Every structure is written in C-alpha cells, then in structure tokens.
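Input record (Table S2, row 398):
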Amino acid sequence: MLKCDFHTYVDSFIDKSRYEQLMSQKYQVIESFNKCDSIGWINVPDETLIQKIIDTATYIKKNFDCFVVIGIGGSFLGSYAFDKIFQNYFKSKDFEILYAGTTLSSKYLDELLEYLQDKNFVLNVISKSGTTMETTITYQLLKDLLKRKYGEDYKNHIIVTTDKEKGSLREEVRENGYISFEIPEDIGGRYSFITPAHLLPLALHYDLTNIIKGYNRGKRLLDEAYEYAVIRHLMFESSKVVENFCLYEENMAFFGEWLKQLFGETEGKNKLGILPMSTIHTRDLHSLGQFIQEGNKILFETFIKIEDSSHYIPYQKQSLHDVNNIVEDSVVKAHYSGGVPCIEFVLDEMNEENLSSFIYFFQLAAAFSGLLFHVNPFNQPGVEVYKNEVRNSLEEIL
Ligand code: PA5
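Output record (5-phosphoarabinonic acid complex):
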C-alpha cells in the first residue's frame, strides 16, 4: 500500500491557484493520454503469454545453470532493479542470472567470457529495435562463445526478446528457430516492465502472480499519479528543475536508475523537463548532503520510505529500521528548512506486489508529466542521435 504526502513539505513553495488550475486539467490530460498510441503497458499480458513465460523459466532452470540477460536501458533496468531489491546482500540465493550489454568494458566482457567458459548457460538477448550497439556487440561475443562450446547446438542456448516483425534479431529467430518473445509495438523500452523483456528474467526468481496482481493494483493510483505529476510541474515552474529521489536501502540504488531513465527520457525534450537524480541515504548525506542543504536551490526531493522491515534488529528501545525511518523524517525536516521542497512516498512494506504497483504508478505519473510539458512522453529522439552517430562510425563492423 502506498501513502503519498504531496503537501506537508511542499505547499509553502507553490502557488495555490496554479495548483488548482493544473489539477482541474486532469480529465483533459487523461483524455490525451488515452489517445496516445504507446500505452500498451496499461494492460497486463494475457494468461497464455504468462504461462509461456513461466514454462520457459521452468525449462531454463531445469536445463541450464546460468541465465545471461543482454540488454540496455529499458531492455534491462526494470528486471535488474526489481531483482536487486529482493536479492541478499551477501549470499546469492537463487538460480544465477547475469547481466551484460550495458558496457563496452573489455575487463567486464573478458571476465564474463572466462566465467562462462565452464557454465552451462543460456542467453536472453533483449532489444526492441534489434540494432542497439552495446547489445549487438555483447551478443556477438557471447554467441561466438556458445558456438565454440556447443557447435550447432548453440541455437538451443539463445532466447530472443524483440519486436514481433522488425529487426535483424527477428530475422535470426526466423532462420534459426530460437525460442523467442515479443516486445509489443505499442510499448517502448522504459515502459516495458510488464512485457517478456522483464517478466522472463523475473519468472526465474519470482512468482509472476504477485507481480501481475501488484501491477493491476497500481491502476487504482491514477489520482495520486496525476497529483504527483502536477506537483512536479509546479516545482519546475518555481525553478526547482532537479528532482532527487532519496532512497534508504542500498539495494534500491538501481530502482533510482530505473526512475532516472523513466523520467529523464520521458520529459527531457524541447529544452524542458526535470533532471532526475538519486541519493542513497544515509551514505550520500555525507557527500551531496551539503549541496542539498545549503547549495544552489534548484532541487526538490522525493523520499521513498518503507514503513516496516522483515529484518528485526533491536537497537536500544527501537528497532534499527525505526532508527532509519526517524533519520529519514529528520532529513526531510532539515532539507525543508534549507529551502528544499520534499515529497514523501511511504510503502507499508517492500514486497513484490507493492513494488510492481509502485512501478505502474511511476510510469503513469511520468506519462502525465510529459503531457503537462506538452512533449511526447513515449519517444526518445535524443537517444537516437547518439545511436545513429555510433552506427555510422561503426558501420563496417556491426
Ligand atoms: O526507453 C527506451 O526505449 C530506450 O532507452 C531503450 O530501452 C534502449 O535504448 C534500448 O533499446 P533497444 O531495446 O531497442 O535495444
């Protein structure tokens, strides 16, 4: 369950009549949203597809000892961020999943290739376009390893998740008969959490029922998502052009990365948008805390608090988790006193259902926010500029 506080530490920074004006545009914004052609993510996949994902996950766990996801941006962040939150800090507890394709680091890939030498692994290459450079290079290197290890049987070690019709990966599926999944035409990368791009890796560690249930529950948060978008917009209009997501669990660091992609790519167009950043507390209070408290007043903050923890560590008269939350409340007050507006989200506990619902909430809020800026929330022409430049430079080898 999600509680939102958009007012206690915000109202003194906003113009009430402008707030009311933007709030009164809700139905127009929702109408524009409903007319967008990239909102396939508002619906969960049908049962046949969910069952295919679950069956494939069962097959993978039975036949391989390691699953390697190759993807970048919206083709990896959702499942990666989700999984990080529920993994142990020190002992890996589940079937092994490795992620690649987010770096061209020779050290990383050299070590990965060496590590995989002795593993019976299966690749899941995930790319909607099928042309992303980092994914393509990593896929080629790992496919070569598969060919050296397994000869013609390498084809049984590749799973492709890509567009239904377009792209070289789809062509390869047609030629080689790999197991494959589709990323629907009407769902873009950063909104693709509820597609096989993320659900297949997640099905190796989690019961998809909880994820689907939570995602559907997120739909009830439409009013809150709209109000959050309005408050963010008012922050922008008051020259608070940076949003800092404050996270109180180290394992949420990649959730911060997911949020940055979601909001950054959705709004950062036409010289508009709020620059998203994230800090992990209390660690970063000892680095960026000074700037936030006393530096340039370009920021507002969005705190994500988890009310209860399943890990009980007594500390004096409290639990350690209570102490963490008391610290969080104090930081909100301190930063507010330093001229930083603070929005607060409180989840009663961190579980799969709650997180999935929170993901839907943020996607909806980001889309509304893009519409309030009058930009297309679902494209990323700026990312394409760099992709094309790289494509031209590397034409001969890719
Ligand atoms: O949100 C987006 O669409 C992008 O960030 C993409 O996810 C990212 O660039 C990867 O693209 P692709 O899935 O085509 O490899």
